[in-house]
Design brief:
With about 325 residues, the chain is of the alpha/beta class. The chain has a single domain, classed as 3-Layer(aba) Sandwich (UDP-N-acetylmuramoyl-L-alanine:D-glutamate ligase), CATH 3.40.1190.20. It is built from ten helices and 13 strands. Strand 4, helix 3 and strand 5 form a beta-alpha-beta unit. One of its GO terms (molecular function) is kinase activity. This is Sugar kinase. Keywords: Kinase, Transferase.
Length: about 325
C-alpha cells in the first residue's frame, strides 16, 4: 500500500459495509483484584471493603465484550504466567473468545488492584503489576494469526514495553500487507506520560482508528477540550472516537468533529472496563457494517452496561 492508501482503506471500512471475518485483539490479560470501599481510604489503619478476584486486562476485556455484543468470532493473543494460565484460558473460552495465550516461563500473570469508591461516581484507582502482559514480543506473533481476520485491535499497553512496541511494529506491517484495518486504544495516561507523547504519536502509522479516553486525548494533544483534542488527533489517524464517560462519545475525522453521542443512562457501581466495553461493542458494530456514529452509540450502551456491574468483563446476568 502507498502512503495514502491506509487512509483511503480506513474511509471505506469505517463508513458502513460489513466485513466478513474475525476480530483479533492483541493485548493484556491480567488478574483483577477489585476492592469496593465507601469514602476515603483510612491511612494507617483498616478500611472496610468487599474484595473480589476477577479476570481482566484491557485487551482481554475488549475481546470479551465484543463476543458478548455479538461479534461472530473473536480471537485474543496475550501472555500470562503459568500460575493462572489455565484459569484465564477457561474464562476466555466461557466468554466466547478463542484465546491464544503464551505462557511466560519466568514472569507471573499481571495483577491489577482496583480500588473502587462505591460513592456516586464509582471511580476507580489502579495499582498495576504488569507481569507477563508486557512481555509480549515479536516471537509471539505469526502472520497466520491474521488468517480469516477482518480487523486487528491493539491494546495501547503494548506500547509501554520495548518488546511490546516491537510486536506492534511487526503486527502493523503484517496487517498492512494483508489489507487488515487496525484500531488502537491508548490505554493509560499514567503510562503515556512515561512513554512520551511524541513516541506514542510516532507509533500510529498504519492505525486507522484511535479510541482514546477524554484524558488521553487531551494529554496527547495538550488541548483542554476533548472535541478540539479529538479533532487534532484525527489529523494523525483517519478516524478518532473519543470516549467521554458520562458525557458520551464523539467522532472526529479529517481535523473536525463529525458527531457527538450522548451517554446511555446508568447507575454506576464500578467504572472498571467501561472503556473496554465501549471499544468491544464499537468494533462489533463496525464489523457488522454500522457507520462509525452508530457504532459509537453501541459503544455508549455497552459502557453503560459495564458500569452497572463489578469488574471489567461482561457478566452472564448482564445480558444485552
Amino acid at each position: 500500500m502507498g502512503p495514502g492508501s491506509s487512509a483511503r482503506a480506513a474511509a471505506g471500512t469505517t463508513r458502513g459495509g460489513s466485513r466478513d471475518g474475525a476480530l483479533l485483539v492483541v493485548g493484556d490479560v491480567v488478574t483483577d483484584v477489585v476492592a469496593l470501599h465507601s469514602g476515603p481510604l483510612a491511612a494507617g489503619t483498616d478500611t472496610k471493603a468487599a474484595i473480589r478476584t476477577l479476570p481482566g486486562g484491557a485487551g482481554a476485556n475488549v475481546a470479551c465484550w465484543a463476543a458478548h455484543w455479538g461479534c461472530a468470532e473473536v480471537r485474543l493473543l496475550g501472555r500470562v504466567g503459568a500460575d493462572s494460565a489455565a484459569w484465564h484460558e477457561r474464562e476466555l473460552a466461557a466468554a466466547g473468545v478463542h484465546g491464544r495465550l503464551v505462557v511466560d516461563p519466568d514472569a507471573p500473570t499481571g495483577t491489577v488492584i482496583s480500588l473502587v469508591d462505591t460513592g456516586a461516581s464509582a471511580e476507580r484507582t489502579f495499582l498495576t503489576d504488569s507481569g507477563a502482559s508486557l512481555r509480549l514480543e515479536p516471537g509471539d506473533w505469526s502472520d497466520a494469526l491474521l488468517d480469516g481476520v477482518a480487523w486487528l485491535h491493539l491494546s495501547g499497553y503494548l506500547l509501554f514495553s520495548e518488546s511490546g512496541r516491537a510486536l506492534v511494529t511487526t503486527a502493523l506491517a503484517s496487517a498492512r500487507a494483508r489489507g487488515v484495518p487496525v484500531s488502537l486504544d491508548p490505554a493509560s495516561t499514567g503510562f503515556l506520560v512515561g512513554l512520551g507523547v511524541d513516541r506514542f504519536l510516532a507509533s500510529l502509522d498504519g492505525v486507522e482508528v484511535l479510541l482514546p479516553s477524554r484524558d488521553e486525548a487531551c494529554l496527547l494533544t495538550g488541548l483542554p477540550d476533548a472535541g478540539d483534542a479529538a479533532a487534532k488527533l484525527s489529523r494523525h489517524v483517519p478516524l478518532v472516537v473519543a470516549k467521554l464517560g458520562a458525557d458520551g462519545a464523539l467522532v472526529a475525522r479529517s481535523g473536525a468533529v463529525h458527531a457527538r453521542l450522548p451517554a446511555a443512562p446508568a447507575t454506576p457501581r464500578d467504572t472498571t472496563g467501561a472503556g473496554d466495553a465501549f471499544t468491544g461493542a464499537f468494533l462489533t458494530a463496525l464489523l457488522a457494517g454500522a457507520e462509525p456514529e452508530d457504532a459509537a452509540a453501541q459503544g455508549c450502551l455497552a459502557g453503560a452496561r459495564a458500569v452497572e456491574q463489578v469488574g471489567g468483563r461482561p457478566r452472564p446476568a448482564a445480558g444485552l
